[in-house]
Write a structure and sequence with these properties.
The chain contains 11 helices and no strands. The chain has one domain. The protein has helices at 2-27, 33-52, 58-76, 78-83, 92-109, 117-142, 147-172, 186-207, 214-242, 257-261, 264-279.
Length: 280
């Protein structure tokens, strides 16, 4: 499995680096700063790659980055976040509906971007808002007493489910999951769910915190696996629309930053929304 070797060769060091940054929040009293910085770095990289998939125009890339940073700065402040209910209920249409709506809209727009100048700018705007939602969710997650733990657990569940899907789907996959990604199978999805649940349960047992019990962790594991597979399919549709295999070549063996965070686009907002429902 050469593909698995490439993933492990680069994925393990990157995962360790992410863990060290999150460790700053867990053990050094970072108060969520490490998590937010990490989310911003990946978000900026993903915006650049998402825009460049359709437009190499420096102006379009600049529009994407300005809209991304501007939206983040606007809603990262607690007062502005409260205006839209972000701190007291987090409207699901914002955190969940917007990413789900924007992904197919971007995919439909992508093939025609080069045909009209204004479409490149519109594409950049849509990509920026698609990417800013999970980053804003990380700001909310950082305010949770278990924020850094939740992010790390979600990351392990999502990436664990990706690995589970790969390990089960490659040798045993027979039933196609969706035509947009021929290599994805129902058997792989089952492997993803099992791996996601296993990661969540192990983390819960290790953490032993009353607000993140085994049943909740297992439930999150199922949702993280399903959300990850859904947004992975959405990004696959986007890449197919523009004829690209990867979002970029930033990371050898893994593709681009958008490829790395695609599974988290819906997973992180979902876990934040559910925690808000249960504990606010």
């Amino acid at each position: 499995m050469k593909g698995l070797g490439d993933r492990l060769r680069w994925g393990i060091p990157i995962s360790l680096g992410v863990t060290l940054v999150i460790g700053f929040d867990l053990w050094a009293g970072g108060d969520g700063i490490g998590l937010i910085i990490l989310a911003l770095l990946f978000g900026v990289g993903a915006v650049i790659e998402g825009v460049k998939l359709c437009s190499r125009s420096g102006g379009d890339i600049a529009i994407g980055l300005i809209c991304f940073v501007g939206t983040f700065l606007l809603f990262a402040t607690e007062s502005n976040r409260q205006l839209i209910g972000f701190e007291t209920g987090i409207p699901p249409a914002l955190l969940l509906g917007l990413p789900l709506f924007l992904a197919p809209l971007i995919t439909e727009l992508a093939p025609s971007v080069a045909k009209a100048r204004w479409r490149g700018a519109l594409h950049a705007l849509l990509v920026s808002q698609w990417m800013v939602m999970p980053v804003l969710a990380c700001v909310s997650m950082a305010r949770d007493p278990l924020g850094a733990h939740l992010f790390l657990c979600a990351l392990l569940m999502v990436k664990g489910s990706d690995t589970g899907a790969y390990l089960i789907g490659r040798p045993f996959g027979r039933t196609p999951l969706h035509p947009i990604s021929p290599r994805k199978t129902v058997e792989g999805l089952i492997g993803a769910v099992v791996a996601g649940v296993a990661m969540g349960v192990v983390y819960s047992l290790t953490l032993q915190h009353e607000s993140f019990g085994i049943s909740q962790a297992a439930f999150f594991g199922v949702l993280m696996a399903l959300a990850g597979q859904l947004t992975d399919l959405q990004e696959s549709a986007f890449k197919r629309a523009v004829g690209a295999k990867n979002s970029g070549d930033t990371i050898p063996g893994l593709g681009g930053l958008l490829d790395m965070m695609d599974s988290l686009i819906l997973a992180i907002p979902l876990i934040v929304w559910l925690r808000t429902l249960w504990y606010d």
